[in-house]
Amino acid sequence: MPSFDIVSKIQMHEVDNALQQAQKEIAQRYDFKGSKATIEFKRAEAMLLLVADNDFQMRALFDVVQSKLIKRGVSVKNLDIGEIKQAGGDTVRREIKLKTALDSDTAKKVAAAIKDAKLKKVQAAIQGDQVRVTSPSRDELQTAIALLRSQDFGVELKFGNYR
Fold it and tell me: Under DSSP, is residue 109 helix (H, G, I), strand (E, B) or coil?
């Protein structure tokens, strides 16, 4: 029976490359000369830690990181952006968590959207951090993909394993 999987993944090496490019840009920019602006990538925790001297620099630092991520093909929908907090030594910090998988709430919303559309014989099953959609008709699967692309679930959905 034809099927496809819906996942939400971030390619960590692309995030790493984007952050290296952002650090190079920050080192060259005049408004960051002599500042304590840093970008730290905690790969094990799937988290970015931005540190800057003040709110203005933090916004500029975040804009640089965000633009580099977009250029590398990493969706900003998969970023859980934290608040700007005061840190020691007259600096501010911001934690950005990366959504590396489809959480159960989002998976339920995706499955519910497919069921609510009442497509003929299309079934959605949640399997861990992915949703498998099956149907005897490939055309119905294409319709389901179009339906899901038209809606916003708060993360970037990737459709793969189409058989």
Answer: helix
The DSSP bridge partners found for residue 12 are none
Alpha carbons 40 and 34: distance in angstroms, whole number: 18
pLDDT by residue (tens digit) across 30-51? Answer: 888 888 888 999 888 889 999 9
What letter would DSSP give residue 45? Answer: T
Tokens of 161: 């394993």
With a CB cutoff of 8 Å and minimum separation 6, the contacts of 37 are 26, 50, 51, 52, 53, 57, 61
What is the model's pTM? 0.82
The residue length of the chain stands at 163
Quick one: 6 exposed, middle or buried, by C-beta within 10 A (0-12, 13-18, 19+)?
A: buried
